[in-house]
Amino acid sequence: MSFGELGLCTELVTTVTEKGYASASPIQQHAIPTVLNGRDVIAIAQTGTGKTASFSLPILQLLANTQPSKPHCVKALIVAPTRELAAQVAKNVESYSEGMNIRSTAVFGGVRIEPQKFELAQGVDILIATPGRLVDLYKQGDVNFEHIEMLVLDEADRMLDLGFVEHIHFIQSLLPKQRQTLLFSATFSKEIKALAATMLNKPVTIELATAHDHIENITQILHPVDKERKHELVIHLLKSNDWSQVLVFTRTKRGADELRNELEAMGIAAESIHANRTQHARTQALDGFRDGSLKVLIGTDLAARGIDIQQLPCVINVDLPYVSEDYIHRIGRTGRASSKGLAISLYSDDETKQLRSIERLTGRQFKKTFISEFTPKPKPPAVKKDKIEENLYGNFEAFDKPSGKRKSKGRKKRR
């Protein structure tokens, strides 16, 4: 189905066509007409299915003929869980609105707040924000929610995972009761249903591609390896395969930085992205990965939903995640838009619990694929410890049992 058949204006259809989008994705086909009709929407959609366009295009059309927003006021608010996702959505909104008299901007932490305050002081039609920075700006009097007509919660399940539920409820309490609300989530858990029940009015639910449907396009491989040799195996895999780019996940920020240093020492262009990096460093790393100048990007689960690379051939999990759902989001960076993907996970014996949890979630049992030079060492036999009885009174003189009388130690009786 073409974008012209969805009820979008000629100006927007021309814009998306010029950007190379010939036809609408399934989520766009269902969501765009529903949003244009003014209905609240719950959309269960994975990153890479075109969800950003499914809410930003109709919002742009609904705001196209309205008066410019007043100073410090906002008409449409899009809330995203991470800085990377907020910046990505803002970039798309700006791209789609070329030639339209619509002001949009993004606000998030990790960068100076003063330029963001300046932008808001001019009045913004569409504001894309992370929850923490948005609340800060409101408390400082830099943003007014009284004129908001539309609210979008993007990747709502991730916001709950990151502990933003109180921020969301606080923001909700400040918004007009009469508004249109759109909630997008990768999963439809009971927590998401509970949140939707408090925020949406008679919503239309669109549930097309679940996480499990998406990973059917991804070949999943499990390589057993000793824990201390995981980085060595990553280097071996990168050198043995002709992947144009690889996204690597580690469990810790320190592990990401250590692997980056090891790869750079081997002459492999790599960078890390995690919460301890400055926003400037994170933005540079993402830009380098998107334009192809950076071959390997190493991140913690922070990066799992903020990266949108259409033709990413491979994802490597150095460590299995503690939360099994994060495995789905990690490997979901590859195999986009019906293309084939590859996800490789390195597994050590201390990760048995995480592996079983992932297998239960995905409904499959992983076959262990051994690489000969990285076959794990056999476990040493368990040592059976002798049971040692200790004197509870702190000395080592022997007592009779059970009376507790001191032994005579063979002294002669006095006559």
Q: Notable features of this structure?
A:
alpha/beta; 36% helix; 415 residues; Rossmann fold
General description of the model:
This is DEAD-box ATP-dependent RNA helicase RhpA. Belongs to the DEAD box helicase family. It catalyses: ATP + H2O = ADP + phosphate + H(+). InterPro entries: DEAD/DEAH_box_helicase_dom, DEAD/DEAH_RhlB, DEAD_box_RNA_helicase, Helicase_ATP-bd, Helicase_C-like, P-loop_NTPase, RNA-helicase_DEAD-box_CS, RNA_helicase_DEAD_Q_motif. It comes from Alteromonas genovensis. With 415 residues, the protein is an alpha/beta fold. It folds into 2 domains: 207 residues, P-loop containing nucleotide triphosphate hydrolases (Rossmann fold, 3-Layer(aba) Sandwich), CATH 3.40.50.300; 162 residues, Rossmann fold (3-Layer(aba) Sandwich). The strands form 2 sheets. It has a 7-stranded parallel sheet, with helices on both faces. A 6-stranded parallel sheet has the order 8-13-12-9-11-10, sandwiched between helices. α2 runs parallel beside α3 and α14 crosses α15. The longest helix is centred in the N-terminal third of the chain and has 14 residues. The N and C termini lie far apart (116 Å).
